[in-house]
Amino acid sequence: MKLYGTSLSPYVRKVLVVLAEKGVEVQHVPLRFHDPDPRFRAASPFGKIPALEDEGFFLADSSAIIQYLDRKHPEPAMLPREARDLGRAIWFDELGDTELFPVLIKPFVQRFLRPQLMNQPCDEAVVARCMTEELPRLFDYLDGQVDGPFLVGGAFSLADISVATGFHNLHLAGEAVDPERWPRLASYVTGILERPSFRTAIAARKG
Ligand SMILES: N[C@@H](CCC(=O)N[C@@H](CS)C(=O)NCC(=O)O)C(=O)O
């Protein structure tokens, strides 16, 4: 099994966490998005990362890949069985992918990607607006959802992976959840990112 995509991507990290939780061996190919590698492009028609190749089967999109892996390697389950828990796990997956990460990534782009990989200066005004105007409403919501170590059904699941993954990129930008303003969210994020599977995914080659 091959997983394409640098572990700097929160979406790639989601899949690396699932593989680590399940103890599935993978050959990690840490390329960047839009790489011309023909096998990668066979798996990801629009050049987005992550993409998976598994014995001639090709699949893109972190959520699609995780559902495939969860069916193929059922233990431990990343998708809850109970109907409402499953619905909420998919809600948090969607929230992480489409609402949270596009905002969490802004400080990462400015302070990490632009200076380190794009040879461009950081725009601190973008970071300040993100931290003071754009993230607080998301943090308010999430702080109200946390009432223990896991978001759904009393167990680690796709919900936790998708919500927590982007916070690593925020940390790489030198920012974090303010523990005085959002105490539950701050300690929840710390707990999830300290799991061995997240540590393994974060340590994976970045490319
Ligand atoms: N819904 C996709 C999103 C993947 C995605 O947008 N990945 C970014 C890198 S973090 C990418 O490949 N961007 C290139 C592009 O949008 O063309 C997933 O969950 O895998």
UniProtKB/TrEMBL annotation:
Keywords: Transferase
Protein name: Glutathione S-transferase
Gene3D superfamilies xrefs: 1.20.1050.10, Glutaredoxin
Chain ranges of the GST N-terminal domain: 1-77
Presence of keyword Transferase: yes
Organism: Methylobacterium aquaticum
GO molecular function: transferase activity
Domain called GST C-terminal: residue spans: 82-207
Key word Glycosyltransferase present: no
